[in-house]
């Protein structure tokens, strides 16, 4: 499965949920959609983790360098 954008993966997950909840697909197809959805969810989690690591920043606190997680609204 190729790596799509985070937003694209979320949209596909939403489509899959609608298909499964709509009861318009066979049980076999529901299982296939479920498996695809789970793969997409894992990919989204990996993308979020990678992004979180990129957002962390290094700051000097008077004693040395310290890794600090990015917080929305914080100023450097």
What is the string of helix and strand elements? HHEE
Our estimate of the beta-strand percent is 5-15%
Oligomer: single chain
Count every beta strand, where a strand is a DSSP E run of 2 or more residues.
2
Q: Uncertain regions: pLDDT < 50 for 5+ in a row?
A: none
Could you tell me the radius of gyration in angstroms? 19 Å
Give average pLDDT, whole number. 82
Strand order of the largest sheet: 1-2
The end-to-end span amounts to 39 Å
Put simply, the count of helices is 2
Domain count: the total is 1
Helicity range? 55-70%
Structural class: mainly alpha
Sum up the overall morphology in one term. Answer: rod-shaped
Task: State the major sheet.
Answer: 2 strands, antiparallel
How would you describe the overall organization of this protein?
The protein has 76 residues and is mainly α. It is built from 2 helices and 2 strands, in the order ααββ. The chain has a two-stranded antiparallel ribbon. Strand 1 and strand 2 form a beta hairpin. The longest helix has 29 residues.
Secondary-structure topology with pairs:
Blueprint: H1 6-21, H2 27-55, E1 57-60, E2 65-68
Task: Quickly list its features.
76 residues; mainly alpha; two-stranded antiparallel ribbon; 2 helices
